[in-house]
Design brief:
The protein is an alpha/beta fold. It is built from 13 helices and six strands. α2 packs antiparallel against α11 and α10 crosses α11. The radius of gyration is 18 Å and the shape is globular. Bound molecules: adenosine-3'-5'-diphosphate.
Length: 286
């Protein structure tokens, strides 16, 4: 393991982003409120997109907040230490983001009415997106060649662990009233319909104009131009923007431009094996 990473309860984390005490705090001390909303994702599955959607939904489509305040302050990561400042504020709802696996999530969540929106993405597209992100982010070690990275991804030897374990862990909540499964592919296919579904889940009613504004302001085009949404504001200390933009392509199926036919077959084989006892059909399974 490189010095840049440490292991906590079987999962790798970046020492540049957080420490063991932050993970212990989230798991054992963080007090979940019933009105909390958690945006949960495996990395590169549409986290920022959901941050933007939640911010816009809770401002009834008014983009002022999104244009003035960075996304990581609007819908902060619970595992990142700066969150303690936000916890002091007794907002209702409090909006949070996390990449944590279910096994590392707050104990105080059990039995609460807090809501989780889990956004999943075709793991092949998340892989490609992560490969490019790892080149520009200090939170990941250099990904090496694509074939090397593919192997690591499939073995789960990465920050936040395995895609397979992550999704299977969180999907155990499927069917609970406070859990909504969303996919990147659904957002792509029908953003407006997805926003309506998310609003219903959150108990938020938006009129047609507010809905139009959410859809417009959470589009790839608008977010790419909004530097407080697209992490261009993050200093060079954390990202090398020249290597790859954060909002890179914003499409589904880019994996076809990266995986060779044998790599894709190998991926399918591992996917089938790891998901064999899992009966849910995702958009990418069709
Ligand atoms: P690509 O690298 O495939 O372009 P995360 O926020 O979880 O890190 O995910 C980042 C991925 O979501 C990137 O994928 C990014 O372009 C995509 N994304 C973010 N906002 C988006 C939007 N409004 N529309 C489409 N894709 C978006």
């Amino acid at each position: 393991m490189s010095d840049e990473y440490f292991e906590y309860k079987g999962i790798l984390f970046s020492s540049r982003a957080l420490a063991v005490k932050d993970l212990e705090f989230v798991e054992n001390e963080f007090q979940v409120h019933d009105c909390d909303v958690f945006n949960v994702t495996y990395p590169k599955s549409g986290t920022m997109w959901m941050m933007e959607l939640l911010s816009l939904i809770y401002t009834n489509g008014d983009p002022t907040w999104c244009k003035a305040v960075p996304s990581w302050e609007r819908v902060p990561w619970i595992e990142v230490p700066a969150i303690r400042k936000v916890i002091q504020k007794n907002n209702c709802p409090r909006l949070f983001t996390t990449h944590l696996p279910r096994s590392h999530f707050c104990k105080s969540f059990s039995g609460s009415k807090a809501k989780v929106i889990y956004t999943a993405r075709d793991p092949r597209d998340a892989l490609v997106s992560l490969y490019h992100f790892a080149k520009m982010s200090v939170f990941f070690e250099d990904p090496g060649s694509f074939p090397q990275f593919l192997k690591k991804y499939l073995s789960g030897d990465l920050v936040y662990g395995s895609w397979f374990d992550h999704i299977k862990g969180w999907m155990e909540m499927m069917g609970n009233d406070n859990f909504l499964l969303n996919t990147y592919e659904d957002l792509q296919k029908d953003l407006r319909g997805s926003v309506v579904r998310i609003c219903t889940f959150l108990g938020k009613e938006l009129d047609e104009r507010a809905l139009d504004s959410v859809v417009e302001n959470a589009s790839f085009k608008t977010m790419s131009k909004n530097s407080v949404a697209n992490v261009n504001l993050l200093s060079e200390e954390y990202t090398e923007h020249g290597k790859s933009p954060f909002l890179r392509k914003g499409v589904s199926g880019d994996w076809k431009n990266h995986l060779t036919v044998p790599q894709s077959k190998y991926f399918d084989c591992i996917y089938k094996e790891k998901m064999k006892d899992f009966n849910y059909k995702f958009p990418w399974d069709e």
